[in-house]
Write a structure and sequence with these properties.
The chain is of the alpha/beta class. The chain has 2 domains: about 120 residues, 2-Layer Sandwich (Nucleotidyltransferase, domain 5), CATH 3.30.420; about 160 residues, 2-Layer Sandwich (Nucleotidyltransferase, domain 5), CATH 3.30.420.40. Helices cover about 35% and strands about 20% of the residues. The protein is built from 8 helices and 13 strands. The strands form 3 sheets. A 5-stranded mixed β-sheet has the order 3-2-1-4-8. Strands 11-10-9-12-13 form a 5-stranded mixed β-sheet, sandwiched between helices. It is globular and about 55 Å long. The model has no long low-confidence stretch (mean pLDDT about 95).
């Protein structure tokens, strides 16, 4: 049986999974980045390579390939480039380093692109060739699939919908600009929207969701505004690629009942009539804790 490694490199931790060709996660392991943040990225990558070797030994398997999803990951070069939420800045050749350490084909892409590939391979997009996958968490990521292929653009960074400007001159964004969609539709953005009402402090989107579900008007309005911002920019995105569906994944997507209605209303009100009432709005079909691993593994399959 063929086995692959799916790896999700995040801002605070990296999850490594051993995945079968059928999409079963046989084993998984987590490495916290904090212990390596003060040293060179090579020390962190060495720890990843050692962990993969241990997983192989535990299951006595050889690997067909290693797929890596990472923030600011460049598919063409196998590099992580200027990732704002990671301790190592500049450009780092991650895929080549892992491939050399393990003598195994390694492929890297943006984490949202990996999620889109996983959705196509194992999720609700199995029968779709044109869709947009939106990840809602610490930031807003997006993977755009057209004609069955992920759109990478000429430099490997196409499809950064989180950094389309939705409020000109608005909130500061981690990318250094102002008014990006991610500054409004993300964990940080959701909290800031709620705090702008001046009704008290909350620490997680889950708290806002609970308040909204219990009927608190400011919490409900927070999700309504979130849906409106999303709908406005996704109406633009639909014009570029005419997707069959827009699929949502991530922690905030678990509260989709609270923002899907305003998202759909705003999308349909702003999209060109050629695309009106043609786009499905849906949640991911992949388990929240498995999607990143499965998507990264699917990348190299």
């Amino acid at each position: 049986m063929k086995h692959y490694i799916g790896m999700d490199i995040g801002g605070t931790s990296t999850t490594i999974g051993l995945v079968s060709a059928e999409g079963e996660i046989v084993d998984r392991s987590v490495i916290l980045i904090e212990g390596y943040a003060s040293g060179p990225i090579e020390s962190f990558l060495d720890a990843i390579a050692d962990e993969i070797k241990e997983i192989q030994q535990r299951h006595n398997v050889s690997l067909e390939g290693i797929g890596i999803g990472a923030p600011n990951g460049n598919y063409y070069n196998g590099t992580i480039e200027y990732a704002p939420n990671m301790p190592w800045k500049d450009v780092h050749e991650v895929a080549a380093y892992i491939e050399d350490k393990l003598n195994c084909k390694s492929v890297l892409t943006n984490d949202a692109n990996a999620a889109a590939i996983g959705e196509k391979q194992f999720g609700v997009a199995k029968e779709m060739n044109d869709f947009i996958l939106i990840t809602l968490g610490t930031g807003l990521g997006s993977g755009i699939v057209s004609g069955g292929n992920v759109i990478y653009g000429h430099d490997g960074f196409a499809g950064e919908l989180g950094h389309a400007v939705v409020v000109p001159g608005g909130r500061d964004c981690t990318c250094g600009r102002n008014g990006c969609l991610e500054a409004y539709v993300s964990i940080r953005g959701l909290l800031e929207t709620y705090h702008d009402f001046g009704v008290g402090k909350v620490n997680t989107p889950q708290e806002i969701a609970m308040k909204a579900e219990s009927g608190e008007e400011h919490a409900k309005e927070t999700f309504v505004k979130t849906g409106e911002w999303l709908g406005l920019k996704l109406a633009d995105a639909a014009t570029y690629t005419s997707p069959e569906a827009i699929i949502f994944f991530g922690g905030i997507a678990q509260a989709s009942d609270l923002f899907f209605p305003s998202l759909k209303k705003t999308l349909e009100a702003n999209v060109h009539n050629l695309y009106r009432n043609k786009i499905q709005i849906m949640r991911s079909g992949l388990p929240l804790n498995d999607a990143a691993i499965l998507g990264s593994a699917a990348l190299v399959m």
